[in-house]
Amino acid sequence: MQLDEFFVTGEPLIYGGMVAIALVTSAILFILTYFKKWGWLWREWLTTVDHKKIGIMYILSALAMLFRGGADALMMRTQLAFPNMQFLNAQHYDEIFTTHGTVMIIFMAMPFLIGLMNIIVPLQIGARDFAFPFVNALSFWSFFFGAMLFNISFVIGGAPDAGWTSYTPLAGAAMSPGPGQNFYLMGLQLSGIGTLATGINLMVTILKMRAPGMTLFKMPIFTWSTFITSFIIVFAFPILTVALALMTIDRIFGSQFFTLTGEGMPMMWANLFWMWGHPEVYIVILPAFGIFSEVIATFARKRLFGYNAMVWSIILIAGLSFLVWVHHFFTMGAGAFVNSVFSITTMLIAVPTGVKIFNWLATLYKSRIVLTVPMLWSLAFIPSFVIGGVTGVMLGMAATDYQYHNTYFLVSHFHYVLIPGTVFACFAGLVYWYPKMFGHKLNERIGKWSFWLFLIGFHVCFFPQYFLGLDGMARRIFTITPEWFTLNFISTMGAFMMGLAFAIFVYCIYYSYRYSEREISGDAWGYGRTLEWATPTPIPAYNFATVPQVNTHDAFLEMKEKGKTTFDEENLEPIHMPNNTGKPFIMMGILFFASFFLVFEWITLAVIGLIGGLVMMIIRSFDYDDGHHIEVDEIKRTERAARGL
Amino acid sequence: MSENQLNAGPLEYRTHEGQMNITGFWIFLAAEIALFATLFATYAVLFGRTADAPSPGELFQPGIVLVMTFLLLTSSFTCGVAIHNMREGTVKGLITWLIITIVLGLAFLGFEIYEFVHYSHEGATMQSSSYWSAFYVLAGTHGVHVTLGIGWVILLLIQLKQRGLTAVTSNKVFIVSLYWHFLDVIWIFIFTSVYLIGMVV
Lengths: 645, 201
Ligand code: HEM
Ligand SMILES: [Cu+2]
Fold this sequence. Notes:
The complex is a heterodimer of chains A (645) and B (201). By secondary structure, chain A is an all-alpha fold. Chain A has one domain (37-643): Cytochrome C Oxidase, Chain A (Up-down Bundle). Chain A is 68% helix and 1% strand. Chain A contains 20 helices and 2 strands. Chain A has helices at residues 3-6, 12-34, 38-46, 51-81, 90-124, 133-152, 179-208, 221-253, 266-299, 307-320, 336-364, 373-396, 398-404, 408-438, 444-470, 485-515, 555-562, 583-599, 603-621, 632-643, and strands spanning 575-577, 628-630. A two-stranded antiparallel ribbon of chain A has the order 1-2. In chain A, helix 4 packs antiparallel against helix 16 and helix 5 (90-124) packs parallel to helix 14. Chain A is globular and about 75 Å long. The termini of chain A are far apart. Chain B has one domain (3-200): Up-down Bundle (Four Helix Bundle (Hemerythrin (Met), subunit A)), CATH 1.20.120. In chain B, helix 3 (62-88) packs antiparallel against helix 4 (91-121), helix 3 packs antiparallel against helix 6 and helix 4 (91-121) packs antiparallel against helix 5 (130-163). Chain B is elongated, with a radius of gyration of 19 Å. The termini of chain B are far apart. The A-B interface holds A 131-132, 196, 199-201, 203-204, 207-209, 234-239, 241-243, 245-246, 249-250, 253-257, 259, 261-265, 268, 272, 275, 574, 576, 578, 618, 621-622, 624, 626-627 and B 1-3, 16, 19-20, 23-24, 27-28, 30-32, 34-35, 38-39, 42, 45-46, 49-51, 126-134, 136-137, 152, 155-156, 159, 163, 168. Residues 70, 73, 76-77, 97-98, 100-101, 104-105, 109, 163-165, 411, 415, 418-419, 422-423, 461, 475-476, 495, 498 of chain A line the site of protoporphyrin IX containing FE.
């Protein structure tokens, strides 16, 4: 293989990307070396098994991915702003919509939510870490290296270009030769391992590590949504694993699952993909619902209305999410009966979702609302998401879907659910729990600017797209004709408003780091209801010096009324904690190289890499490291300092 | 973790950590069921799509498959005996029965490899048609699982030699036994829905 086949050449934009990568990497290397931070990086972050730190790494990576996916989006919108634009050619446009979709769903939305779960769920249930802290670190590094593998594709080897859905036969070896599509397959496979492991980990954590007295129906609602999401992960991700593996075997080893030869069945891919894919969209929306429920209850200063109905509707949505996948290809020709069945199951999902909407409204009704930034995101979510949901029901009617399918109407629909749903929730959750993570609040004034700009930009960007779709503008086209100009131009303006809002948000992080008042009370907003607010800030490594007894659903509210804390000096005991370890990082690093070799179909090297991974597992099997204890004296010192006693 | 040890009940359940390992592994097995269910569904959809390659009815040999089934079912039984020995606290019995188990597993694998080689000589390879792709990937995934299981048991045998029966080692052995029985169950489905049906259709 020639060097110019290995590196992507000939595209000025991509040369720009290479320069940017080289500059940022050398800047990071320089700073780490100059300030002698390598040891710190290794000890505090790369080897950590602390759920709070792992959560922060998840969120930072997800923000970086939001930047990457957002840059892709802005490039696409620039190309579509005017008729016959020459900014991106067809091939480059295809690559960009593929990486945009994949990055946003797999490497932005999911890790962002998993990051929040990592930090908050153990705190909400009164646990000291995950059930399996080692596996948690493994999950993070699997996501991280999977994301890296996928992201380098645009400078090394060439980006995938068959869409984030990668339909066959287009994505097969005959029509998409070369490493591009393999990057998609291996990047998702590598990070998928971690997602599955996280699902199992969270389930065991929630089942086995709750504080005494916290029955399932006394769990905070975010924990509930995490729990149900983990179920979906456990049953949906293996389907993706198999689908990706089959396509990989097709492409690299010549099997005939999705091919046009050998009686293969290309439509089988669409089925497998969406059997995972539809549950996946609920994996990214249910935790978002959980976050909104927490934020709304907190800032409405009222108990969440209809807690039980909320829980049951989450469960119902999760169950139904496995029964609707065909609505993504009504036009494939399965016939009227099959389409009708899936039409009905699809529309049924609107019912429990509607229940949730009314419960949020009822929580707000006659409450004393505090308009903080997280609350603004949550309030904006309700009407915006309803638009996305209603158009979803329109798409769910099989007969009419023949009109909307593969047009901008669809593009608008899924952005209306993903952005007000998932992205708003990520912002709301990040701002809401920020003081818990970093010891200070984000500046409210700047936060409000970024919120309003983002909200308006979002509607300006995507509302016109419904009408473009109805006017017949197909999705995934790379130039527009003059009759679609006006609405497209407006849409692009909206996209840039969102880009600006994101920049302001990042500035807000910097500004608050410099100037925000340091937070010491633990209950930063003053209205905290659940246990995460009971810990001091900064949260000690062991979270809870003494684990409180839980009697009600709003456990911390009760503690505040009774004047209790998580520092019961009389009843302290040494706390057992796991040790840091570099093995997860090394193991996933090795698998990263194995996957990279497989992308280029260098089989011998790939096998060596795989053996390396197995060797790491063997080493782990012989590892009887039993962790360490934090002694009572040290707990006392930490808690006294944190509580100003 | 190692504190709050219980003093009653089976050894592998005595620590909180051990209990969580077992729960986690059950959930992992649920994910494995989803994985194999997807492979079975793929196989069912692609059934009969043999293109120019021979049909399964022409190739499948009841004799070999019956022997394989017998070997694997027996290995599940010996694995159960091993756990029984573990509960009684006899490390020696445990080790012996685990060794018998993996020997049976190895014999099973030997037959499977022979079978695959034989079919490909007859012109049915993973590349020849979508049906055969599905067959090899389904049966092969099971075979890879068995291989990993054997490797895993070997690692635990070494650890049993080094450390004897403790709350930790017995927990690990118990979990590998769950895995082994699970593979047996999957094989029963492969035996019936792949081989028996393949032979008569
Ligand atoms: C700045 C905000 C965003 C803008 C301006 C934007 C714009 C676009 C555009 C122009 C397309 C391609 C349409 C086509 O030609 O097919 C697209 C596709 C897509 N977007 Fe976004 N997007 C944004 C944010 C997001 C977010 C936050 C997510 C997920 C959480 C997301 C998920 C997707 C997906 C899944 C696709 C489909 C990709 C495909 O067809 O292969 N987008 N977006
Ligand atoms: Cu769907």
